[in-house]
Specification:
Blueprint lengths: L1 H21 L48 E7 L3 H21 L5 E8 L13 E3 L15 H12 L6 E5 L3 E3 L12 E3 L11 H4 L21 E4 H20 L1 H7 L3 H12 L4 E3 L4 E2 L12 E3 L4 E3 L13 E3 L22 H16 L6
Parallel strand pairs: 1-2, 1-4, 2-3, 6-8, 9-10
Antiparallel strand pairs: 4-7, 5-10, 6-7, 11-12
Helix pairs in contact: 2-8, 3-5, 5-7
Length: about 375
């Protein structure tokens, strides 16, 4: 295609962003997009039902109302062994946390959104909605792109009783009952240090044009953990899906954002809908870097924990003692994992204890 071909795609993106500023769909009751997500084009459907809201979104309840604000916890997953054992552990601790909170808990229902298109043998153990995966090849090997598409289907096809949704992940362990952290119309989210909208302003302006406001309107978040109003999420999800697909097809965005591309896409989509978030650093911890559980609500075990027998971290080198979820891709972890040696941070000790308790009590573990 030569020079013209090289210039065409960036021009197409620029034109699309310009069009959307003049073609915003203002109906707050616009339906979610039907069918499979389309490829990125110059039409306003890329932003799918983006509406103008004041920063902070629309308030659902007044400040003085004390009634419980229930939220539904939703986790997307495939049917891989790796995702499945994490979901089983996650749901075990969800149930314990909810039960321990008593009748005043704001933790409502739970759904595993299974995006492989067919039921598995854990449908009776874990409340599950079966979503269809993206068409073959559309995720370009980046399986996380199925997450926003799965949420679109779940929100479209399910009668969710609660007014709010907590988006969580299989590798989250709930340490204690989570209250509804949403306040005054703002969502509630964990801030990630590696989500840096200001640093990538040039790239992000393709998707969040200057007419929408400063790039700092984009919060340093992913889609999880996030608590957001259900009706707001119904608007955000189709946009999140289409922005994710567009970014993946954009070589500049794909190179800039890498494995956190879908997180940037959610942050952009939330900002496009005027839904900003209260950033809760205490929402979760990530061992081994965070050493104490303290008053946090979630343990996110995304990082490997490698230590020598003196309790010193050997990150980047396989430790004499280790716990890394990636060690259990093809089979679940065995029951009664060896506890870490003295000197290892309390957060890691707690993590292993909680995994061990779950595997000891879940039926047919490892079968």
């Amino acid at each position: 295609m030569g020079c013209c071909g090289t210039l065409f795609y960036p021009l197409l993106i620029t034109l699309s962003v310009a069009l959307i500023t003049y073609n915003i769909i203002i109906s707050s009751n616009a339906p979610l997009k039907q069918g499979f997500p389309s490829s990125f084009s110059s039409s306003s459907s890329f932003y799918d039902s983006v509406i103008e809201l004041p920063r902070g979104g629309s308030r659902i309840r007044g400040n003085n109302e004390r009634k419980r604000r229930l939220f539904h916890t939703a986790v997307t997953a495939s049917d891989s062994v790796y995702n499945t054992w994490q979901c089983r552990v996650m749901y075990y601790w969800f149930k314990k946390a909810k039960a321990s909170a008593g009748p005043g808990s704001e933790m409502g229902g739970f759904t595993r959104i299974l995006h492989n298109g067919k039921p598995d043998k854990y449908m009776d153990e874990i409340p599950t909605f079966v979503a269809q995966p993206l068409p073959s090849g559309m995720d370009q090997g980046y399986v996380v792109l199925n997450r926003p598409w799965a949420f679109v289907q779940w929100l479209q096809q399910t009668d969710i009783k609660e007014d709010y949704v907590l988006m969580s992940e299989p590798d989250h362990i709930i340490v204690k009952p989570i209250p509804n952290l949403v306040k005054d119309g703002f969502g509630a989210a964990f801030p990630f240090f590696y989500i840096e909208p200001k640093k990538y302003e040039k790239v992000l302006r393709k998707y969040y044009p200057e007419e929408r406001g400063p790039v700092t309107n984009i919060d340093p978040i992913g889609n999880s953990p996030v608590i957001v109003g259900k009706e707001a999420l119904k608007k955000i999800a189709p946009t999140w899906m289409n922005v994710s697909l567009a970014m993946k097809k954009d070589p500049e965005a794909d190179k800039a954002f890498g494995w956190v591309l879908e997180m940037y896409a959610y942050a952009v989509s939330s900002a496009l809908h005027g839904v900003s978030n209260i950033l809760h650093k205490d929402f979760m911890i990530q061992p081994p870097w965070d050493k104490e559980v303290g008053d946090k609500y979630i343990i996110h075990y995304t990082y490997g924990c490698d230590f020598n027998m003196k309790g010193h971290l050997t990150y980047g080198k396989i430790g004499e003692w280790r716990f890394d979820k990636r060690s259990y891709i093809k089979s679940p972890p065995p029951k009664n994992l060896t506890m870490p040696p003295p000197g290892v941070p309390q957060s890691v000790v707690t993590l292993v204890k909680m995994v061990n308790e779950a595997t000891a009590n879940l039926p047919d573990w490892g079968s």
